[in-house]
């Protein structure tokens, strides 16, 4: 938590002692090592409150997040009237007391990096990255919170405030060992550079950074500027292709207040949208969506409806939320069937469209697919899991072996407040979180059906070639990037497991919303 920036007319504190960072001259001499603060220095915002809030929400509960939000005025008072260390101690107590260490680590790995990465300042990152031999981030934020981001995205060591644990190290007590501010930052830098060769460059943004900056060979102050240009995503050392958490936007106090205050109303709105549209004939739902505030844009030419002698099409789409097959059904104005490898009885019972499980036996599945296509259109999501970023995961090739009647469908979902997908949360709530957004939206683009020469049966192409071709066609339409990442990669990153579905007594697959199951 940091104090609000000074008025625009005031000179940034510390500039009289250390020059501002824009005076840094990269060509003056080689610099190999650097030590820098995080909030307000490498990050444009000087406030760490949004990241504490995300931990309280995602590793704790909405009640804990609300308690932290209500404590915000007291935190600001402590920071300005008492000390930065006192504010950090209260922040840690409200945020971490009683939380399981593994839950906090999961949030630090899957939720926080995206928000941190979006706030990296371009100017200070250029200075920090230029010191390629050794980079150290010295921050008052808890090391468990920032460590994953700092190591993976900034390629730096991290020294942060350490938290006390109990229950054999399984839970946090909420107490800190010592807030890493002022002289303690200097002590840590001296210990990390124990050989006596202090960092070539020191970067900070507040008076409590002066102690460690003073022992660096040269040091620069970072003037407060919340509108400072951000570093391009591809300039960082990693990218957040996979991320978790329900909140779409960085929860600054105003956005955090809206997300929590709107939640009960949003849930009621979601219930109305779901159950009202369930009562409407599918051919009319596209119009009732508009009446209930759901934006649905349909582009391209939908495949013709199946009829005797002309079977349905296999609609192959990218996977944005658990609602993808339902949205395609609404866009077509007719029922579809969703094929999957894994479907629970509960999902089958509540899904408004038919969900059919395949067997992994290619011959049997081909027969099953032919029968399903004779009845109507079939939807498949060959990525096997949702991806929030503008990227497509590797497509499973199985669909290409089952039929040549393939129609690629490009999907994009618009979610302004809550994400309608999760890797660690309650997946049955995913559709409701999507509909809880004030103005949720979907874009559905029906692309040209594959020509016979582009398929396995008619063109003799391999299933992998066909799958890769469909992936490229959809990615080009959406302006997305094709990747070779898989469902397993996502779950290892976000949940620490391979995402394997337990057949009995376990959780459903990752996209356990109505009608959208894994296919790889």
Task: Write up this protein.
There is one protein chain. The longest helix has 16 residues, at 263-278. Strand 9 (337-340), helix 15 (345-350) and strand 10 form a beta-alpha-beta unit. The protein contains 21 helices and 15 strands. The protein is 38% helix and 15% strand. It is an alpha/beta fold. Its main location: membrane. It comes from Panicum miliaceum (Proso millet). GO terms for molecular function: glycerol-3-phosphate 2-O-acyltransferase activity; phosphatase activity.
Which structural traits does this protein have?
disordered C terminus, Rossmann fold, alpha/beta, 38% helix, 2 domains, phosphatase activity, 15% strand, 520 residues, disordered N terminus, six-stranded mixed β-sheet, 21 helices, glycerol-3-phosphate 2-O-acyltransferase activity, seven-stranded mixed β-sheet
How many separate structural domains?
2
Large-scale geometry: elongated
Structural class: alpha/beta
Q: Describe the main β-sheet briefly.
A: 7 strands, mixed
Segments where pLDDT lies below 50 for 5+ residues? Answer: 1-15, 502-520
- Taking the alpha carbons of the first and last residues, their distance comes to 44 Å
Q: Please estimate the helix content.
A: 25-40%
Can you count the helices? 21
Strand order of the largest sheet: 7-14-13-8-11-9-10
Give the topology, please.
Elements: E1 33-36, H1 49-60, H2 62-70, H3 72-81, H4 84-96, H5 101-110, H6 112-118, H7 122-130, E2 134-142, H8 143-153, E3 157-166, E4 171-178, H9 183-192, E5 201-204, H10 210-213, E6 218-221, H11 253-261, H12 263-278, H13 282-291, E7 295-300, E8 314-317, H14 324-332, E9 337-340, H15 345-350, E10 354-357, H16 362-375, E11 378-380, E12 391-392, H17 398-402, E13 406-414, H18 430-436, E14 441-446, H19 456-459, H20 463-478, E15 481-482, H21 487-494
Parallel strand pairs: 1-2, 1-5, 2-3, 5-6, 7-14, 8-11, 8-13, 9-10, 9-11, 12-15
Antiparallel strand pairs: 3-4, 13-14
Helix pairs in contact: 1-2, 1-4, 1-5, 2-11, 3-4, 5-8, 6-8, 12-18, 13-14
